[in-house]
Write a structure and sequence with these properties.
Length: 342
Amino acid sequence: MTDISVPDARRHWHKIDKAWLALAVIIALIAVFDAQQLRPTAEFAVKALWNTFGFIAFAVAAVAYMKATGAETLLARAFEGRETRMIILAAFMGGLSPFCSCEVIPFIAAMLALGAPLSAVMAFWLSSPLMDPAMFLITSGTLGWGFAVAKTAAAVALGLFGGFATKLFFRTVVFAQPLREKLQAGGCCGARKPYQGKPVWGFWAERERVGTFRENAIDNGLFLLKWLALAYVIEAVMIRYIPAETIATILGGDGLGPILLGALVGMPAYLNGYAAVPLIDGLLEQGMAQGAAMSFIIAGGVSSIPAAIAVWALVKPRVFAAYIGLAIIGAVFAGFAWQTVA
């Protein structure tokens, strides 16, 4: 008789939402090893979620509206015309668009197949994971408007830097024949296929688009809820168990060291763009330098799994390595600039 228990176990494991699982494990550990801290941790997370509820609700509605209207078709305009114009538009649209990195894989693949320059695509790839309307609202509500505006500017600047650097070195061996012969499958959004053609701003007249609005509002609402709940619980644990002087010693102070360390630590430690915001808030409260916070959130955003999948799925490893390298350099510059003005 064939044993199918291992494949079944793997299938069930893949179906489990890892964010909810991590949240349950952390709460269980607190309950077992420090039961008195369970209630304060829960109260901290609930209060933090309530304080950002308005930002979350508006962001969810705004993104669902843009999905239902088909506004993502406007992205195609960034890849028309002269290369310099394409790089500039791609950096700005990537930094401001509300669309998941994985969702644009088919779109970017089509643009590359039609001859769109890799420089413009690189500009979009570098800026798109870092900021969107939902993230801007959550960032401003938690870290302040100044940090949110600075991160938005850093996202666009990183896109411009990466795009023009790729244009400058395009004829080198790093960027020669950049595309994979067989595109890798992957994704993180699970959304329905984007609408084609001109946006329909009055989407409520079409039943299918109303369904798209409802589906995206529910999906995005649950997505933000799980990651922010996990992040706020981790923040409460950090504040409770990690001495402030430890954070201040490692990531505090002036100079290039904390900024560079923030970028290097941010890449492997990053959970999710939305979850990173309250984590950074907790680290800042314990002594993290402003520049290190900015470099952490920029480098981590570009290297997060959804963003990295969108690049790895389409290009060869050497181009992916260039993408990561540009992200680290840009993150350090962004951190240094924010440290100077903050």
